[in-house]
Amino acid sequence: MANTTTRPFPVAIPVNSGDIVIRQFQPKDADQVHALLIEGLVYGPESPHNVAQHRNLFGRVSCVAYLGFALGLGCLCRNNIVFRFAGGALTLGATTLFVYMRRMITKMFIHFCARARETDMGDIPHFYDVPLSADSTQSSQPQGPGGFWVAAIESAEDKSSEVVGYLGLDYRAIPDPTSGELRRMIVSMNHRRRRIASLLITASMDHARRHAPPLETLDLETTEFQPGARKLYENHGFSLVGTRIMRMGPLFSMTVLRLRRKVFD
Ligand SMILES: CC(C)(COP(=O)(O)OP(=O)(O)OC[C@H]1O[C@@H](n2cnc3c(N)ncnc32)[C@H](O)[C@@H]1OP(=O)(O)O)[C@@H](O)C(=O)NCCC(=O)NCCS
């Protein structure tokens, strides 16, 4: 297992198909980065969308739907036309509520990814201050506090590069020049628990230290549906500084957690 605190960057973790290197984003990574965003947040195992859907099965609205459905079925069994009519309406209403809720949650997460693509993820070099070569194909180390680190399996044989994780440091997200924000952390579901996220955090922290001052603190946000991510961040010295409720439609909301740590301990 790679040592995440002492190794210089870029580091290389050997894997079957090549080495995992941590480097800056390059324009050729864009499609893979976007695919990983959807996988990490919506469809992959342990994605916040899947966790939210699972928890929603035991949520208040679902319980109301179950109750309505059960009552409706009970009414349908009665030998009275009024009861049967009411039972039909109740079961239909409860089923509609349940399906609507599930579809809405999925829609909200897909919308979140689409918004990301319309904003920072649509132009990563610009938003994260990643300097590109004259022909815009290669990147070099950012000169400012921002940056966007990619973990990629680079094959020496065919020169291919498979993006398996990434993390951005957005220096402009917070108006205070002493604070930066870590954003968009994702690791491919096929490569988790191999310290790739830890390497990405360490790379960004090392970079932030080179820009302190003015950078003094790093913030990040995660949600109640990402307990693994919270543990990861806490392992890296971040602690909870606040929470807020994010409303996602009329029936669904989630708690967003803000974590912070000093650039130097
Ligand atoms: C959260 C995520 C980035 C972690 O990536 P990773 O490369 O697997 O993380 P690491 O291997 O560096 O984990 C280091 C430590 O963090 C903690 N950790 C990481 N993932 C965890 C999980 N799913 N459950 C519990 N603890 C977890 C563990 O303490 C782990 O150490 P261990 O493996 O020795 O127990 C990855 O699971 C992911 O992309 N999830 C979906 C998207 C997401 O939630 N992103 C965060 C956005 S805020």
UniProtKB/TrEMBL annotation:
**Keywords in alphabetical order:** Membrane, Transferase, Transmembrane, Transmembrane helix
Q: Which residues form the N-acetyltransferase domain?
A: 114-262
Read off the InterPro entries from this record.
Acyl_CoA_acyltransferase (IPR016181), GNAT_dom (IPR000182), NAT_camello-type (IPR050769)
The transmembrane segments are: 57-75, 81-101
Is the keyword Membrane in the record? Answer: yes
- Report the GO molecular function annotations: N-acetyltransferase activity
Q: Which Pfam families would you find in this protein's record?
A: Acetyltransf_1
User: Which protein are we looking at?
Assistant: N-acetyltransferase domain-containing protein
Q: Which organism is it from?
A: Mycena venus
